[in-house]
Design brief:
hydrolase activity; NUDIX_hydrolase_dom; NUDIX_hydrolase-like_dom_sf; NUDIX_hydrolase_CS; Nucleoside Triphosphate Pyrophosphohydrolase; elongated
């Protein structure tokens, strides 16, 4: 028997039956899903027989079942895949309005858990066996397509969970798919527009002399091993500091890199190291990649080329790559980058929450 005080002096008897009845009146639904990506960062969605929009793998939590077990059970039933899900990405409070629930459903609200299903290899993807009669198709799609393919609430939740995974700050608490404490990735709307797609082979050797340089971008290291990434303020699209050569650069890509870095990010760097270039056999230009140490970061400037002020963030190189769609060559570029990091005597960054750097952080 439980007693709860109604005043400082007079307790009232609150029986287990009364307590249970009160909690039953306030009961809500519970659901669980899994967010799975391929090596290109595309999200697995299902086309199901009972909806006209795509969904993440998942479903209702059964009686006396934990959300983690429910998500694992749904993966087994829907995709024929057995795996444990032990890392949460988001917990979402879904209201009737947020779910656009029909009155006949008598929707009481739902607590929906999103678990991290990981990044699947080609072998794992090939092992998928969709459940006949329910799962009509399984596909991996660019994150920016989720609002087009999913219901609004499901798309909001999936994108928030994906940003939480990249951000590495722990599970996000959501209300109707939106975080109650937005990170810089949420505020910028990262992944709501298509990521920069550069599916070009990466070469560590010098760029061909007969190809003009179209682009000089830099991986700029902070002392803790994270790198500077720029986010478009209007779209949340990510880019590395750097840009296109201009006449005043006199054909020197290092002058291009330093000028663009200063104009876009108010950043000064040490002596850059060339790490490689991107170009395909049918390309008429090359794209150069450098690594350098940040030596100064001033107040965020207005970029003279665009008239906008970029959002500057610090992320590990691995987190930064999740903001781009660079295909298989991304792994080669990452390996070359870490070799350059070692030569620059910069430590390898541990995965940590993405932050905005303050001006003058790197004055050396």
């Amino acid at each position: 028997m439980t007693t709860t005080p109604t005043s400082d002096k007079t307790p009232s008897v609150f029986t287990d039956e009364k307590y249970g009845a009160q909690r039953t009146e306030a009961a809500v639904w519970a659901g669980a899903s899994a967010l799975i990506t391929d090596r290109r960062g595309r999200v697995l969605v299902e086309r199901v027989s009972y909806r006209d929009t795509r969904v993440l793998p998942g479903g209702a939590v059964d009686k006396c079942e934990s959300p983690a077990h429910a998500a694992a059970r749904e993966l087994r039933e829907e995709l024929g895949v057995t795996m444990a899900l032990d890392r949460g990405l988001a917990v979402d409070w879904v209201s009737a309005a947020g779910a656009n629930a029909r009155p006949a459903m008598r929707f009481p609200g739902e607590v929906l858990h999103v678990f991290d299903g990981g990044t699947w290899s080609d072998e794992q993807i090939a092992a998928i066996r969709p459940r006949e009669g329910e799962i009509e198709a399984v596909e991996f799609v660019e994150p920016a397509r989720l609002p087009e393919l999913m219901s609004p609430d499901n798309a909001r939740r999936a994108l928030s969970a994906l940003r939480a995974r990249i951000n590495a700050a722990g599970p996000a608490l959501l209300e109707d798919g939106l975080p109650i404490a937005p990170t810089v990735l949420d505020q910028a709307g990262v992944l709501r527009t298509a990521r920069a797609r550069h599916h070009f082979p990466f070469h560590t050797g010098p760029a061909p002399e007969d190809l003009p340089v179209h682009q000089a971008w830099g991986w700029l290291f902070a002392p803790d091993g994270r790198v500077l990434v720029l986010l478009e303020p209007d779209t949340g699209a990510a880019c590395l500091p750097g840009g296109t050569p201009e006449p005043q650069d006199r054909g020197d890509p290092l002058l291009t890199l330093r000028r663009e870095t200063r104009e876009e990010a108010a950043a000064e760097v040490g002596e850059p190291l060339f790490i490689g270039h991107l170009s395909a056999t049918d390309e008429t230009c090359s794209r150069l990649r450098y690594a350098a140490v940040l030596t100064r970061l001033g107040p965020a400037p207005v970029d003279p080329a665009t008239g906008r002020t970029y959002i500057r963030i610090l992320a590990t190189p691995e987190q930064a790559l999740e903001l781009f769609d660079w295909g298989e060559s991304a792994a080669d570029q990452l390996a070359a980058l870490h070799q350059a990091r070692t030569r620059l005597n910069i430590p390898k960054a541990v995965r940590q929450p993405i932050t905005e750097p303050a001006a003058d952080t790197f004055t050396l």
